[in-house]
From TrEMBL:
Keywords: ATP-binding, Nucleotide-binding. This is Septum site-determining protein MinD. The keyword Nucleotide-binding applies. Residues 197-218, 234-287 are annotated as: Disordered. One of its GO terms (molecular function) is ATP hydrolysis activity. GO terms for biological process: negative regulation of cell division. Residues 243-254, 276-287 have a biased composition (Polar residues). GO terms for cellular component: cytoplasmic side of plasma membrane; cytosol. Pfam families: ParA. Residues 256-275 have a biased composition (Basic and acidic residues). Coiled coil: none annotated. It comes from the Archaea. InterPro entries: P-loop_NTPase, ParA/MinD_ATPase, YlxH/NBP35.
Length: 287
């Protein structure tokens, strides 16, 4: 059975997409799931910095047909696996973004969950996973510029035929930011949770490990675990029931994806359904 796929997106830079991808993965791995993070931020890779490893082959080489996907997958602290982006401009230039669906097809049968960590902005490689994944998690800070971009990201995901699972707020607003519930309601998206500003997050990154792993009782770790449970409750239950049946995925051969894809896409018919960006200032009276 193919993995459930999740895109972690948000056009505003630095809101916590990579931190979320890594920590949702660690939380899901903790629950017994086999998880792969595919870093599709091809221009500005960060996973290698946050998890402190130096891969030889990366998604750059895979997308240039210079390496097989299985040769660019690495086990990382936190009990999950990563197909990281490379860090060079040359690798970025040579990467063929249109091969991303084929890469997913080659690896997904070996995992319960595949998470796409997408980059900021609206480049081809940032948007493609939103139409490819079963669901998209929109990450935003509770600040107006970030919420405005989150709104656009949700609209783009829907236009691409993707399903938006909801919005995850990360870090803090200022004193004037409304509560996450209010912003989520303005965005017309389910609220998946709020990961508070937490010094344990940068500290975990300094140690090259997910905060869920290195500071399991920190507020951020608790919040990420809760969001992972909300997103994958059914999967976590199944993994708990079949614990011990899963195989080690690293460097196994690829299997074909079976027919009868049951991915659950909800196509919102037009963009009028989304919140009008003109009223964001009043909804989020902050920047
Ligand atoms: N809950 C948090 N508390 C404190 N710092 C955080 C939190 N979440 C993320 N950060 C910090 O914010 C910075 C940006 O996070 P991250 O790289 O995950 O964002 P991003 O959305 O992936 O960025 P980009 O758009 O560049 O890909 C990092 O330095 C990270 O340590
Ligand atoms: Mg990132």
């Amino acid at each position: 059975m193919p993995a459930r796929t999740l895109a972690v997106a948000g056009a505003k830079g630095g809101v916590g997409k990579t931190t979320t991808s890594i920590n949702l993965s660690a939380a899901l791995a903790e629950a017994g799931l086999e998880v792969l993070v595919v870093e599709t931020d091809l221009a500005m890779a960060n996973v290698v910095d946050f998890l402190r490893f130096s891969p030889e082959e990366t998604l750059h080489e895979v997308l240039a047909a210079d390496a097989a996907p299985r040769d660019a997958i690495y086990s990382v602290p936190g009990g999950f696996e990563v197909l990281p982006s490379g860090t060079t401009v040359e690798g970025f230039v040579n990467a063929d973004v249109t091969e991303i669906p084929a890469v997913l097809e080659a690896v997904e049968d070996r995992y319960d969950v595949v998470i796409f960590d997408t980059g900021a902005g609206v480049s081809h490689e940032s948007l493609l996973p939103l139409g490819l994944a079963d669901r998209t998690v929109i990450v935003s800070s509770p600040r107006v510029a970030s919420v405005r971009d989150a709104n656009k990201t949700a609209e783009l995901a829907e236009r691409l035929g993707g399903e938006v699972a909801g919005v995850l707020f990360s870090k803090s607003g200022t004193g004037r930011s409304p509560p996450p519930e209010q912003i989520a309601s303005y965005l017309e998206l389910p609220l998946l949770g709020h990961v508070p500003e937490d010094p344990a997050v940068p500290s975990a990154q300094d140690s090259g490990r997910p905060v869920v792993t290195v500071s399991p009782d920190s507020p951020a770790a608790r919040a990420y675990r809760e969001v992972a449970g909300t997103l994958f409750e059914e999967k976590a239950d199944r993994a708990a029931r079949t614990n011990g049946d899963s195989t080690t995925a690293h460097n196994q051969g690829a299997r074909n994806r079976p027919d009868g894809d049951s991915r659950d896409t909800r196509n919102r018919p037009d963009s009028d359904d989304r919140a009008s960006s003109g009223s964001i200032d009043t909804a989020v009276n902050d920047n």
